[in-house]
Structures are given as structure tokens and as C-alpha cells.
Amino acid sequence: MAIMMPASDQTVLARRAEIVAALRAIVPGEGVIDSASEMRAYESDGLTAYRQPPMVVVLPDTTEQVSLVLKYCAGQGIKVVPRGSGTSLSGGALPLEDGVLLGLGKFKRIREIDFDNRVVVTEPGVTNLAISQAVAHAGFYYAPDPSSQIACSIGGNVAENSGGVHCLKYGMTTNNVLGCEIVLMSGEILRIGGKSAENTGYDLMGVITGSEGLLGVITEITVRILQKPETARALMVGFAQVEAAGECVARIIGAGIIPGGMEMMDKPAIHAAEAFVHAGYPLDVEALLIIELDGPKIEVDELITRVETIANACGSTTCQISTSEAERNLFWAGRKAAFPAVGRISPDYLCMDGTIPRGALPKALARIRELSEKYQLGCANVFHAGDGNLHPLILYDANKPGEIERAEAFGADILRACVEFGGVLTGEHGVGIEKRDLMPEMFTEIDLNQQQRLKCAFDAQGLLNPGKVFPTLHRCAELGRMHVHAGKVAFPDIPRF
After folding, report:
1. Pfam families from the xrefs (predicted)?
2. Dihedral class, residue 125 (left if φ above 0, else alpha if ψ from -120 to 50, else beta)
3. pLDDT-based confidence at 493, cuts 50/70/90?
4. Of the candidates 99, 74, 71, 82, which has an alpha carbon nearest to the alpha carbon of residue 12?
5. Could you tell me the pTM of the whole model?
6. Please, are residues 64 and 25 in contact by the beta-carbon 8 Å criterion?
């Protein structure tokens, strides 16, 4: 699929050989990849419907090298696209034909484990799960746990403000990151935050987290680690109607119970996950809730009784409670593997990401069913029920003419519905290119211009990850500081899309 991106700078492309040589001087050895065949691995991220080979790939392994690469590119007017593990589902790491793809895959060292302050200082290429594994021997873990945690990097988690099953109780990435080292497009190296949860001045960590590679390149991250709860048990509750499952979610939260995680799957997702993982999911239900409760054993036992009572009152047809750690993990295995499981029943799928108020859940699922019929495409629903983060998986076959276009239109209508119901365009996947052109559904032009002014404060030339997030490409001079004469805008050659 083609998508409108900033026009390629032909003067930069004409100097490709010179640029590659200069980058090799900065990152010697195997740090620069410039052959077409070797760069194929970088032509897309997890949103594989869109592909574009980069001009060149650079793989530094020190902060100083990142700084020199960015400083060189800034001086030469060369665009840069930062990339972590490439698991982004919004096209955030889609390369540019005239841009440098800056891969952080070699930044895979944990620099410090500080149990006294309950933090880990890590490089951005370390996987999410590896942080928990590194501290597990002392009874600690890192709470945010995206389904791709075995592969996704912590740097990418910060860029997208990733969540996961346990974000309901323990927060998103932004609630668990305390500091970072960031390199600006100018090459300047900044340290923001640190090991303390309290910092004076502006909340710059809040600005950096979720910035999708538009503000700087993160080369070190300090994250909060938590002590594992004494007890964790899960309930697997089935319902004959999706609406009843939604009501159960609302009543649990309304009762003041905040589970460690609360996930929902509809019937297509249940069947796909069960065939893939064999977790013992009931196949005769329309919706399945997996509810995890953690804390002191006496508290967990009491909460299980209360949740089971609420589920029964909402008309649950099945209820299974884990009796061992192995069984609890098995309950979650199907949910964690839901995305690849759906990949076994459909040649292709689009994984959407939108958020709604919990009370709008039945209405949102009804709208998705209507849209499925309208576009004649199947849809499996897997989502974080506790915080209203939907992940509809739209099933299609890219080899059939017109299906990808219908799938995209279907997905866009789902996201419009999220905004209509009082929600937002994204929960944890970011905007990237997938939702870029839908931003005006949620924000006015004034809102978007103000957001772009923030980018200008970090990247005045607009060289970092251009074409992402903002539906219209501006130069910083355009944002309220340029003169329009006789209805003509200066710099008419600036690409707008």
C-alpha cells in the first residue's frame, strides 16, 4: 500500500555515496548497512502493509556515535528515523527513501540494577521481558507488559508509551519511567529525570514518553521495578453475551476492585487462541474475561469471592479459578498469543488500537459488528477491558483486490467511533502513519499547531521522523511566525500531505 509521505530530497539522494562514507567514518565496522538486499529487513515495522526501503541503515552502539550521526545529519539536512525492535503497529518506524534509519538494536546492555532505590538503568535495545528476568532472582519485576514483551524494546515502549495486561493497576510506561538520556537532532546530549520519582521544573519525562521519535533519540532509560506480589491468581469467566461481560467489567471497577489485569476476548479470538495455545478456554461462550487479582493471600481470596459473586450476578455461564502458578500462566498464555493466533486463521489482519470509556464498551462492540457487515470483513476483538483499550483485529487477504482498502476504511471508522463515544484514537500503539490523517477527528488545527510547536522546540528543522503523527507537514517558521502576502504562502515548495 502507498501512503503519502514527505517528498524525497533529490539533492540528498544524489549525495548518497558521500553520506554513506561519512557515516562509516562515524560508525565503523558493521555499523552501516547500505546494500538493497540487507536493508530489506528494515523496510517496515509491525505495520507491514506499508513498506519503504531506507536510504541507509546506521547501527551505532554508543551514545557518542548517536550524537555524531545526528549532528552530521542536521548539518547536511538529512532526515532520520529512529527504530527500536521494529514491533510498532502504527508505522512509527517506517523508513524514508531519503532518510537515515537509526537502529538502536546494539544498545542491549543493562547498565545498573539498584535494588535499594528499586530502579534499573538500561539501554533502549533491551527487551521489555529481559528487564523482569534480570531482577526476578530478587523477587522484583517491571510492570508494563505488552503482548510483544519478548521482542519489543524498552526504548520503543517509551516512544509509544506502551501498556499491556497489567497497566490497569500498575500504569503505562509513563508511570514507570523515571529518567532518560536523550540525544537531540543537534547532537546535544541531555539527561532528564533520574532515580527519584520527584523532579523540579517541567515534566519533560511526560513530554518524551509517547513522543514517537519526533523529539530525540533515547539512549538510556531509568525504570521503576516493583516487588512481586505475595499472591497472584486469575479467574477465567465466560458469558453468553458480550454485553454481559462488559457489564461485569463496569461492576468490578465500580465496586472499588482494581485487578492486576482484566482482559476480554470475543468468540473469534477465543477460538483462535484456544486452537493455538490449548489453554482450556470455553468454546461455547461469546465473551471471555480473564481477571487477575494480586496482593496478600488473604486479600486475594476475599477479592476472588467478591468478583465471582459479581460475575454470577451478571449472568456468567462458566468460571474457572487458577489453583497454581502454572495454571494462571496458562490462562494468560492464550491472551498473550492472541495476535499470532489470529494470524493462523487469516492471511492478513490489521491490529487497531483505540480507547473508549468503559461504559461505552457494549455500544462500541455493537458498532464494530455493524461495520464488519458493512465492509464484509471479519473481526476478532481482543482488548484491555479494564481501561477500555480496544484491539479489534480486522481480517483480510492482501492478495484479493480492494480488501486492504476496505480493511483500512473499516479501521478508520472504528477509530472515529472511539472518538464519538468519548474516547481517543490510541491507547498504546501510537499514531505513527496509521492514525496520522485521523488526528483532525480529535484535535482542532489550533491543537495540532500547538503540539507541533513543541516538536519545533526540540527539532527546529523537522528532520526527526517526519511524516508521522501530524496530518499536515509544517516548517517551524509557518507556525504563527510567517507573513502571508496577497493570499500567497511563502515557501510553496514545502511538501504538504
Report:
1. FAD-oxidase_C, FAD_binding_4
2. alpha
3. low
4. 99
5. 0.91
6. no
